[in-house]
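Worked problem 6 (solution included).
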Amino acid sequence: MTLYIDPPTWPGHGRLWSHLVSDVSYAELHVFADALGVPRRAFERDHYDLPAHRYADAVSAGALEVSSREVVRLLHGAGLRRRKGAARTDPGAQPRSS
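Solution. The predicted structure is:
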């Protein structure tokens, strides 16, 4: 299981945030987030938003540190990228086969 996290550079609600993603499936992402104790409400379309103070926890649990650009590239490459306004599907669904 390999998960990826970008640096906490995204501002919101008075904090800085990271994005936690999988390049395999949403199911893998949910399992990892559950193990970290991250609430499901932190899942947004194709990633989990993690506050800066949880960044080290995710890395200690095995998430690989990558750039924000790499997070987007990984999501696109896996067919898991969901843009804002895209039709909602089951967040546990597997990506489509090519």
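Discussion: The two ends are 22 Å apart (CA to CA).
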